[in-house]
Amino acid sequence: MAALDFPASPAIGDKYPVPAVAGQPQYTYDGVKWTTVGAQVTTAAPATALPLMDAATAVVGTATKYAREDHVHPRIPAAPVDALAYSGLQFNGSMSVSQELGDTGRSTQGYICDGWLFVKTGTAVETILRLTDPLFDYCGFSNLLYGQAGTAQPTMGAGDYYALFHYIEGYRISRLAWGTAGAQPITLGFWTSHSKPGLYSGSIRNGAYDRSYVFTYTQNTAYTHEYKTITIPGCPDGVWASNNTPGMRISLAIALGTTNSSSTVGSWTTNGSALGATAQVNCVSTTTDLFRLTGFVVLPGIAAPTAAQSPLIMRPYDQELVTCQRYFEKGAESQTYYSGGTPPAGITTAYEAVRFSVAKRAGPTMTPTTGWQYYNTSDGTVVFTPTFTNVSTDGFSFVGSGMTNWKAWYPGGSWIADARL
Amino acid sequence: MADYQLTAHEEPCTVIRTSDGAGIPPDMANRDYNGDQFSPGYIQWKQAGNTADPYVEPPTPEPVPTPEQQILFDHENRVLALEGQPPISVEDFVAKATRTPAAQRKVLPKRKG
Fold it and tell me: What is the DSSP letter of A348?
C-alpha cells in the first residue's frame, strides 16, 4: 500500500485518494479531519485464501488483501480467567477450606475437608487427609488431598472400592441443561502427583444414580506434578437435579473392584454404580502408594485453563469459605450480657435463637460438642447438654432444660451444622 | 439403646443420633436423615427394619430455692417450729410462693393463736 499523502488545504467533502483505489478506503475531509466514517472500501477482488484458524502461535502473513486472510491469532479462551473462576461449578477445589478436621484427616468413610468425601469398602486402611504442604507450592497450591495406605490391599475384592467424591448441588449445575438436547459440555482440570504411574479414572453420575460417564487419565511419571484436563460432553438424557439435592456426583478412584468399575469409557451409560474404569490402577496395593490431588476445577464448556493459569482460576479462601458454609458451619455457644438486675429465680428452661452465617442447603444436622455451660443465680457455672430445636436452613434454637436457676449463658460449648450432600 | 431416638411422640420429627447426640431434622434433603447407598441415613436405617427409641419426656427438675427463697424458707420453718407445726417441704413452699393468698391459706396449716 502506498503511503498516505493527503492534500494540504482540503475543502469539506473532498475525497482522497481520487480516484478510489481497489482494496483501500477512500477518505472524506469533514472540515477537521480525514475520515472513513460512512465510506466504503472500494470493492476488491475476492480473497484467494481461507482465513487461517487460530493456533497456539500468532502469525502475520504477507497478503495485501483482507486482514484476516492470513493472520493467525493465538488461541485465547473466550472468557478471562476471573470469569471462569466465578463460573467454576466445583467448590473448594483448591482444598483450602477444612473446617471440620483441619489437617487431621481420616481412615474411615467421611468428609476429609469441605466438599471432599472419602468412601471405602475393603481391607486396606487408607489414611487420607487435607494437607497444608509446600508440595504443590510451585504450581500455586498450598493444600492438597494426600492418601496413603497404612495397611495395603494388593488384590481388590469385587465389591471393594476406595474413592474421593465431590458432590455438586443441583443449583450449581442447572445452567448446563443436562438431561436435555441442549446439554452443554464441561471440562475438568486438576493436578495429580501419584506415586504409581499408570491409568487412573473417575466418573460423573447424576443424583439418581442412573447415568454415568467414566473418564480416565494417566499419571505418566511417579511422584511428578502433572496437570490433567478432561472434556466431557453434556448428558442429553436422564434426570439431573436443578435444586438443592445432589446434581452431579464426581468420583476420582483410588482403587476399584469390578462391581464399581466399567469397561465403557468416554460415553454416557445408565450404569449408576460406575466409579471409574476397569483398568484403574490399584493405588492401595502397597504401603508406599500415594494418591495426591489438588487444583480441581469443573468448568462449563470445552476450554480449560492452562497449567500456569490453573491456580489463578481458584476462588480465594474468603469466597470458598462462604460457599462451603452453605454445607457445613461451626459456631459457639452464646454469652448473655445484662445489667441492672438479674433474671427471676427458678428458671429451669431457657432458649436462645442463633442465625447461621450462611443459609444452609437443607435443614442441617446439629451436633453439640461437650462443655456447654450456663450461669445460675449463685454465679456458678453449670455444665448442661443442649438440645436443638426449630432447626431450619436459616438458623436454630438451642435449649437448656432441667436447669437450676438459670441466669445466663456461658460460652463453653460449640455446635456443628451439617447440611453436606 | 437404638442408634436413633425420637424427639416427639409422632414422626416426622427430629431424631437424635445416639452415637454423638446430633439432632437430625426431618428434611429429606439432609443426608443424615435421608442418605444413599454410600452413606445411609435414618430413613435407610429404618427401612432396614430398625426402630428408634421412643421420645421420653424430660424429667421435671427438683425445685431448688434461690438464696432469697432459702432465707424465707428457713424463716418459715423456724416460725412453724415455734408454733409446734411440722416443717413445710420445699415443694409446698414453692407452691405457696406461686399461689394466690386464698390458695395459700388452703395449703398451709393454720397457725395457733
Answer: -
Opening angle at CA A344, ends A338 and A350, nearest 5: 75
Q: Which helix (H) or strand (E) holds A410?
A: strand A406-410
All structural domains of chain A: 83-325 (2.60.120.260), 328-418 (2.60.40.2080)
The CA angle A178-A279-A265, to the nearest 5 degrees, is 25
Residue with cell 502506498: A2
Whole-prediction pTM value? 0.76
Query: Is A155 in a helix, a strand, or coil?
Result: coil
E strand map for A170-275? 186-192, 198-206, 212-219, 226-232, 246-256, 261-262, 268-269
**Rounded Cα distance, A125 and A284, in Å:** 9
How far apart, in whole angstroms, are the C-alpha atoms of residue A285 and residue A124? 8
Query: Of B4, B15, B31, which to mutate for an interface test with A (greatest number of A Cβ within 10 Å)?
Result: B31
- Answer yes or no: is the ipTM higher than 0.85: no
Q: Which of A345, A378, A419 sits opposite B30 (nearest CB)?
A: A419
Find the DSSP H helices in chain B: 42-47, 67-82, 90-98, 101-107
Cell numbers at residue A76, please? 485465547
Q: Test A377 with B25 for CB contact under 8 angstroms.
A: no
CA distance A69 to A50: 6
Q: Which of A345, B99, B66, B67 is nearest to B108 (CA)?
A: B99
pLDDT score of A51: 56
Sequence-ordered alpha helix ranges (H) in A88-199: 170-173
Task: Name every residue whose Cβ is closer than 8 Å to that of residue A166 and which is 6 or more positions away in sequence.
Answer: A90, A115, A116, A117, A250, A251, A252, A296
Residue with cell 443424615: B32
Q: Which of A410, A413, A400, A411 is nearest to A347 (CA)?
A: A400
C-alpha cell at A351: 432458649
Distance from CA of B90 to the nearest CA of A (A): 13
Percentage of chain A lying above the pLDDT 70 cut: 89
pLDDT tens-digit series, residues B30-42: 999 999 877 899 9
Can you tell me the distance from the alpha carbon of B58 to that of B64, in angstroms, rounded to the nearest whole number?
A: 17
Q: For residues A247 and A171, is the Cβ–Cβ distance under 8 A?
A: yes
Provide the Cα torsion A386, A387, A392, A395; round to 10°: -10
Read off the pLDDT band of B58 (50, 70, 90). Answer: confident
At residue A267, does pLDDT exceed 60? yes
Of A345, A361, A367, the CB nearest to B69: A345
Q: Crossing angle, helix B90-98 and helix B67-82, to 10 degrees?
A: 110
For A33-69, the pLDDT digits (tens) are: 888 775 555 455 555 655 555 565 666 665 555 555 5
Closest Cα in chain B to A327: B30
Contact A88, A81 (CB under 8 A): no
